Amino acid sequence: MTKNFLAIVGHRKLLQISFVLFVLVYAVLIGLRFLDKPFVVDNNDHYKELFADFLHRGFYQSSVNGTSALYNFALATVYQFTQSVDGAFLILNAGCDLFYLLFGWYFLKKVAPMSNTYTRMVFGIYALYIINQQSYLHASNDTFLGVFVLALLYVGLVRFKKATPIDFAVMGLLLGLAFGTRMTAVYLVPLVAIVIWNWWRQTNLGPKYKIGKVGFMVSVFVAATLLFHYPSLIEKQRLGYESKEAKSGATWIQRNYLGLKKIEQGKEPIHRNAIWQHTKFEAVDAYLNVNGPDSLPRTFTQAVAKDPILAIKLGLYNCFSVVARFLRFWGLLLLLPMVVFFRKRIDYPTKLPLALFALFTIMLSFTCYTFIEFRWFSGYEILVPIAVLLSLGHYQTTAAPIKNTLFTLSLLLITVFNLKSIIGS
């Protein structure tokens, strides 16, 4: 029966029908989410207060107190026109999402021609994923940081094939701008190191030239970082990032550890609300008052040393959550780069995007010491469609029906998940 249906409709026509259905259902989901949520910029991480402090005290003192320097500079620029704090966050983050879409289109065009049906569909999946995040309704700098992540990945994966001194300067500048925005930019360092290593092993230039170019990039990075953090370095001898400790001095590691132990003991279900809603800082303070100041680990290293098994279980759970999420939004297409990755005869550059994404996922999963939040993947998610497109080139053209079937099944699978979300909303 299935063969007769495919013979009548055809693999290509079925793929087109599946894509139209996918877009329609996704649009309904996005529309319902938009209507269901108040059009108000939330403030979970208190970035509105940080921005207000930046406007009141200025850059130097805000950096000393701890802030997101470059993000607040950008917000202040928008604020000059809006004269509204919420409006500044909304417009800046919406602009970042627009950058994801436009530059993402350009990025993917450099990987595969947009005249290709598969490339257009992959971009469609990526675009709807970005729109569905609604990051413009969050007062957070993750989306802003993602702009530099996305641009840096473009330089590393496209420009570094024939790197020029300008490319090294841009790489160092983008990394410095990322460090001027958020501490989690540190996760970019190993990724940049891998890109540099890949360039180093492929170029035939002498060691002196290579060292000079890498040294130039590092110099630009250090200069850009110092530009945003020099007040705090002068006054406190540390980078000027915001502190997320409670007023009592309790740390997020202590709060996360206490919430995770509740889950481990069966007192709470496996959910981030076990920490966010059911283990407030007041509960941490109460626990410390009863059990002593050393009863909860203050730092990540202390937490791992105190209970390494818990840290490993949490890291593995986070990795599983990431795989489950991207399977939910990309379907079986994730299998394409995974198969290519483990085929030894495939060239290394084709495997690089998936390797970078996997490395970032593992690092984040095992070091965040909480349930992973997918806003932290802003900018990095472009690696998934790039990995898919690059892997397609390593399948024979005679396998077109198989590709069509895989794309069709993936689109239908994502559509089913979206329908489930619509019904459950």
Description:
By secondary structure, this protein is mainly alpha-helical. 72% of the residues lie in helices and 0% in strands. The chain has helices spanning 2-9, 11-36, 47-57, 59-65, 69-82, 85-111, 117-133, 142-157, 165-179, 188-202, 207-236, 252-264, 273-276, 281-291, 300-306, 308-330, 335-341, 348-367, 383-392, 400-424. Helix 5 (69-82) packs across helix 6, helix 8 (142-157) runs antiparallel to helix 9 (165-179) and helix 16 crosses helix 20. The longest helix is centred in the middle third of the chain and has 30 residues, at 207-236. It is globular. The model is unreliable at 4-9 (pLDDT under 50).
Give the terminus-to-terminus CA distance.
Answer: 35 Å
Structural class: mainly alpha
> What's the rounded overall pLDDT mean?
91
Strands, count:
0
- Strand proportion: under 5%
Regions with pLDDT < 50 over 5+ consecutive residues?
Answer: 4-9
Give Rg in angstroms. Answer: 23 Å
Shape: globular
Helix-strand sequence: HHHHHHHHHHHHHHHHHHHH
| Main sheet overview | none
**Separate helix tally:** 20
The percent of residues in helical segments reads over 70%
